Amino acid sequence: MISLFNTLTRKKEEFRPILPGHAGLYSCGPTVYDYAHIGNLRSYLFSDILRRTLAANGLKVKFVMNITDVDDKTIRKSKAEGKPLKEVTEFYTTIFLEDLARLNIAAPDVLPKATDEIPGMVDMVKILLDKGVAYKTDSGDIYFDISKSENYGRLAHLDFSQLKQNADGRLDKADEYEKEDARDFALWKAYAPDDGDVFWETDVGKGRPGWHIECSVMSTRHLGQPFDLHAGAVDLIFPHHTNEIAQSEATSGKPLANYWVHPEHLLVDNAKMSKSKANFYTSKDVLDKGLSMMAFRYLILSTHYRSKLNFTWDSLQASQNALSSLYQELSALPDGGTALARPAADFMQVVNDDLNTAKGLAILWGVLGSSATPADKLATLLKFDEILGLGLKQSWESASKLPDDVQRMVTERNQARTGKDFAKSDELRLGLESNGYIVEDSAAGTIIKRRH
Question: Which of 98-112, 181-195, 390-404 has the highest mean pLDDT?
């Protein structure tokens, strides 16, 4: 069975689902005010690998990921662009889903938007007010009183004796703040002129929800409380996930989730990647360099999710080269084999041990270099790819049906693209097209189809 490092307990634990044979997984999704950077994408890749691993162990997974389409950032972006909030957020939601497709990440089973869940947020705020763990200020803002929360901060292992309480007695509406601050946080933000036309008239006043309550409501509505697994980037542990736990447990008296799992940062020049530092790259930057997002997926798989990864273009190029070699070797393997029992068991053992995909890739390359029959190699690698998600079946199916002379042209073109010889790549594309083939450069590599 699967063992995962639980941030809540700071130890690796065997995963035991609440409902046998099922797993409920929630992952914090994007705030849709800008393009996702590749540091964000590492987090979504992690959730995809976790989901695939759960399914490979025979569990029926319900995967929920939210879309934050109303908060401070989305409103600021809407004002800056002079466009309605919905127009801005729908544009960036579409881009986000395109990024998932490029990375071969299957869409979540449920993708709720915060703006569709306002009634549930209002209900939670009312319960917290009635229980006396929340209070309303003269301005109409509603805050959660962290002094009323038992064991507040245990997820982040905060030492309250070392923290500033309520930022020197000052309250403000900011959803994000420094780790040394321990603040009462906003559940509901009263309408202010800066919000423009973004507000709801509700039983708790005219305004909009705070960021933290959005995830609490969306996760529990679709998965119940408690649910099995809560995922999200490591920088969400505090304050976001800490505050989710506080308000959710105060509402129901039950734990929010049993397992908390967090992938580490993707660094650039050994610094955390963030939009505020302008040191981030997007999928467009990767594609503009002639590299594929599947190469980025390979790069992420090659490092354990709880290890920081310092991104460089050289490392991505190396991953592109490795993936191209893998596709090329795969193309020569015949169908009709059976997955090798021992390598398959070894692969599942390392992946089930806290999602060690780096060791999984090593086993994959070991199979390729083994004395096993070519057909059995193919069957084994395709089995591995149910978790790795590198598009091996699509690549093999595309390559295996081509005549030898066409396959040689495809191989030469892949090599030209890897070597950034785009003039030769274009020449070979034209040659393939003149021979009656359609050339598609997809997330799973180059796909060749005969023109009908």
Answer: 98-112
3-263 is a CATH 3.30.460.20 domain: no
Which tokens in the block code for residue 248?
Answer: 């959710």
Whether the pTM exceeds 0.85: the reply is: yes
Provide CATH code, domain 268-400: 1.10.730.10
Are the folds of 3-263 and 268-400 the same?
Answer: no
Q: Are strands 309-311 and 271-272 parallel, antiparallel or unpaired?
A: unpaired
What mean pLDDT value characterizes the chain? Answer: 91
Q: What is the pLDDT of residue 169?
A: 46
Question: Would you place residue 190 in the very low, low, confident or very high pLDDT band (cuts 50, 70, 90)?
Answer: very high
Q: Which amino acid is at 212?
A: H
Residue 404 Cα distances to 120, 332, 399, 409, 433, angstroms: 60, 11, 10, 9, 16
Residues 6+ apart with CB under 8 A from 120: 217, 218, 221
Instruction: Give the separation between CA 450 and CA 452, rounded to whole angstroms.
Output: 6
Domain range summary for the chain, segments of one domain joined by +: 3-263, 268-400, 401-452
User: What mean pLDDT comes out for the span 277-304?
Assistant: 93
* Angstrom distance (rounded) from CA 432 to CA 403: 12
Q: Give the closest residue to 181 by CA, choosing from 190, 170, 196, 189.
A: 170
**Residue 98: predicted pLDDT:** 97
Residues with Cβ < 8 Å from 450, sequence gap 6 or more?
436, 437, 438
